[in-house]
């Protein structure tokens, strides 16, 4: 289960890294369409904090932690669903 949660965290890091690369390569010409902003908000929830400047490292760490937390929840629920007899009283 730890390996799966680590994979979730790595995916979160990669997703945030891709968004950072996109913003850096298109910065002066970035035209945030509503759909693109929604996609960024879904895949990288820290983008909803728009009132304060956020460093690159903070975005990467926050998205990695968010995906690890989601991975922990999903993998715990998946484990309970696939093996229900182990957790009965």
Query: Which term fits the overall shape?
Result: elongated
- Average per-residue pLDDT, rounded, comes to 82
Poorly predicted residue ranges: none
Briefly note the structural class of the backbone: mainly alpha
User: Can you write the helix and strand succession as a string?
Assistant: HHH
What topology emerges from the helices and strands here?
Layout: H1 2-25, H2 34-43, H3 56-82
Helix pairs in contact: 1-3
Can you offer a commentary on this structure?
Helix content is 69%, strand content 0%. The mean pLDDT is 82. The protein starts with a helix and ends in a 7-residue tail after the last helix. It contains three helices and no strands. It has one domain (2-83). The chain is elongated and about 55 Å long. Helix 1 (2-25) packs antiparallel against helix 3. It is mainly alpha-helical and 89 residues long.
Can you describe this structure in just a few lines?
The chain is mainly alpha-helical and about 90 residues long. The chain has three helices and no strands. α1 runs antiparallel to α3.
Question: What are the main properties of this structure?
Answer:
89 residues; mainly alpha; 69% helix; 0% strand; elongated
């Amino acid at each position: 289960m730890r390996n799966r949660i680590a994979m979730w965290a790595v995916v979160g890091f990669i997703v945030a890294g891709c968004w950072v690369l996109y913003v850096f390569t298109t910065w002066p010409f970035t035209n945030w369409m509503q759909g693109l902003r929604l996609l960024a908000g879904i895949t990288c929830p820290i983008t909803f904090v728009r009132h304060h400047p956020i460093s690159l490292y903070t975005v990467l760490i926050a998205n990695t932690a968010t995906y690890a937390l989601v991975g922990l929840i999903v993998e715990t629920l998946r484990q309970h669903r696939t093996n229900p007899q182990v957790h009965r009283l």
